[in-house]
Amino acid sequence: MGVAADEPLVEALLAAAPAVAETPSAVQQAEVPVVRRRGARSVTDWIREAERLAAECATIDDLARAVGDFGGSPLKATCENTVVYDGTPGASLMVIGEGPGAEEDRRAKPFVGKAGQLLDKMLAAIGRRRTENALISNVNYWRPPGNRNPELDELAVSRPFVDRMIEITRPKLIVAAGGVPAVSLLNSRDGIMKLRGNEYTYRTPGGYTAPLIPMLHPAYLLRRPQDKSRAWRDLLLIEKRLGELEA
Hints:
alpha/beta; 6-stranded mixed sheet
């Protein structure tokens, strides 16, 4: 790791943050290519099953149980726990990361390793805490072997649950922490460096709409602390928009 987890995110406030880019048009969801089969059921079958189960959930606890019982991800067989969410359901801010790592898998909670500790510091810098006013989740609920990136079909079978969680908790602002959730949620071909610093509109299949802001993943900042000024600008944008949305 390039920096200790308890190193402050920002050593000094920037004199001025750059202007926020013009908000792009709302991003409509597109189908994820389905390329693999598992046993007698195709990935498309499992996506439909996930859609059915998610639609039946009225609360976030219902959703957590449905995800825990779901057998459509090949990752479930190789991980220790299903990791669904942590924090405050119904909070204005929802942070969505990539997926659990080793510590998250062990403790069955998202963002509790070194990157999670840094995320907590980042959120605290703008007055947000998972115990009070932030909800934390991921676009994938099971740890991939070796902490590799989740594959397209692994993301696709989780997506109905991700969307339903957004619809149930109704956050005022969604933050995509890192390239995988940003690219997946926005169906974008751009990387995180192009996506961050901008606001997008996310719409679920059920019709719930919320602003979405991509930011650099805390794990990336642990490797490249020289980019903390970019992360600070991301946080200032998030803080500003939350203030507007909560007014």
